[in-house]
Task: inverse folding
């Protein structure tokens, strides 16, 4: 089944050149999922009784969501493509996803939303690293 992300990549008038469209689509989709999970996790953390213990988790969730969202925007634009900017965004996103996953994993035993968020972060981390490897 073709996703909207893949469909949009396929419709680019001049093609994607040397870019791996499948890896690009996987990365965009993983980052969208991660951004949503991080946003929801931060919100859920704010509703927990001991919210003070989750301050770092909330901050990390918010940073990761913002970086994933920015990465999706950069990956979705191909006119005037700049590989150096794309690489920098993927490095930043990989770093943010790793940090958020590690923080959420610290709370996963007690908060299901943190467990789910950590899984989404790890998937986005892998997808960004994979695309980065393919870009060379």
Result:
């Amino acid at each position: 089944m073709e996703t909207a992300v893949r469909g949009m990549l396929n419709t680019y008038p001049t093609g994607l050149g040397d870019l791996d469209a499948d890896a690009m689509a996987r990365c965009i989709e993983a980052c969208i999922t991660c951004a949503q999970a991080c946003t929801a996790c931060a919100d859920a953390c704010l509703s927990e009784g001991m919210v003070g213990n989750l301050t770092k988790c909330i901050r990390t969730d918010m940073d990761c969501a913002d970086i994933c969202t920015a990465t999706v925007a950069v990956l979705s634009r191909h006119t005037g493509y700049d590989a150096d900017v794309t690489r920098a965004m993927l490095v930043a996103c990989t770093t943010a996803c790793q940090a958020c996953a590690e923080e959420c994993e610290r709370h996963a035993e007690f908060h299901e939303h943190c467990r789910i968020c950590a899984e989404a972060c790890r998937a986005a981390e892998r997808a960004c690293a994979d695309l980065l490897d393919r870009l060379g």
The first helix runs from residue 4 to 10.
